[in-house]
């Protein structure tokens, strides 16, 4: 899975020259830097990166180059990966269910913050050094995200109070954490969570060291540039309003930080009246389409690199494998005149795309081309 470099200014030019028959990701370091700067300058606290959204070496290196030093990791393999790219990285182990062997690995790798959402898992952390930060993961029935993150992890407010007291009794540094759900287009879920977090801390009689407001920051899937600064302002305003002395704030974006950094180009294998077959699908870089709905930022490019224009029509898009589930859930509006060997270029594909590619049936996007001259 090596990385190629190109000085060509656009994916179109590279596609016209290389005519790849496999799906190709294009990595744009400039865009990654720009988004990282928006977070680091705008977020009122510590910015950590949720590695699972895109663990590609070039993304990790790009974020380290942009000054990101803290990472949300969920497994020993992610810890080791981050340490390889940033030996002095600050690791937050925010997967609240861990085997004993995973706890051992987290201690060995020097994780400084651990989340919990149930008593049994907190008891398992008893051997961590006193003073270690343990953040209680809260969940609320909030709406506004593309799908609900509370369905698996998180303690309801009553349990969160009990956990927070116990964390303090065990001699750990008490914090709270939540994840409002991925792809939140408005700031409302954060405001609601922060307000409840303050109530929980008061009821527990525990002063929070930090409040981690999770990921969930949106990317542009066709609705326009996300209003990150509005969300940042709401978060800092809500924390000031809810707490007498606000805890330090932390965020752990995955999608919001890395989505803009990659584009994905697929090749059309055949065109029918009602359908097109392309060379990657839901077992590859298009996996999220099922859960998040359509990605509206696409363009069709002829083999010579020029845009395929003209009238539009919706067609079913099938992926390349022999599994009939391998199709996008809803028809996609494409130029009527789309042809075999055209390319479909999707923007904003940096998050949960390359990370979810499987090799099922021998397919899957493996190549990354780095655009060194902008995008
Ligand atoms: C997945 C995850 C994130 C990142 O979520 P995004 O919606 O991609 O920002 C952050 N924190 C935790 C604990 C996660 O599981």
From TrEMBL:
Location of the Orn/DAP/Arg decarboxylase 2 N-terminal domain: 35-258
Pathway where it operates: Amine and polyamine biosynthesis; putrescine biosynthesis via L-ornithine pathway; putrescine from L-ornithine: step 1/1
EC numbers, comma separated: 4.1.1.17
Catalytic residues (positions): 322 (proton donor)
Any GO CC annotation of this UniProt entry: cytoplasm
SUPFAM superfamilies: Alanine racemase C-terminal domain-like (SSF50621), PLP-binding barrel (SSF51419)
Keyword Isomerase: no
GO molecular function, one term: ornithine decarboxylase activity
Pfam families cross-referenced by the UniProt entry: Orn_Arg_deC_N, Orn_DAP_Arg_deC
Catalytic function, reaction form: L-ornithine + H(+) = putrescine + CO2
Positions of post-translational N6-(pyridoxal phosphate)lysine modification: 52
Top EC class for this record: lyase
GO biological process: putrescine biosynthetic process from arginine, via ornithine
Keyword Lyase: yes
InterPro entries assigned: Ala_racemase/Decarboxylase_C, De-COase2_C, De-COase2_N, De-COase2_pyr-phos_BS, Orn/DAP/Arg_de-COase, Orn_de-COase, PLP-binding_barrel
UniProt keywords, alphabetically: Lyase, Pyridoxal phosphate
Cofactor (UniProt): pyridoxal 5'-phosphate
Residues covered by the Orn/DAP/Arg decarboxylase 2 C-terminal domain: 260-350
Transmembrane segments: none
The family this protein is said to belong to: Belongs to the Orn/Lys/Arg decarboxylase class-II family.
Protein name: ornithine decarboxylase
Species the sequence originates in: Salipiger profundus
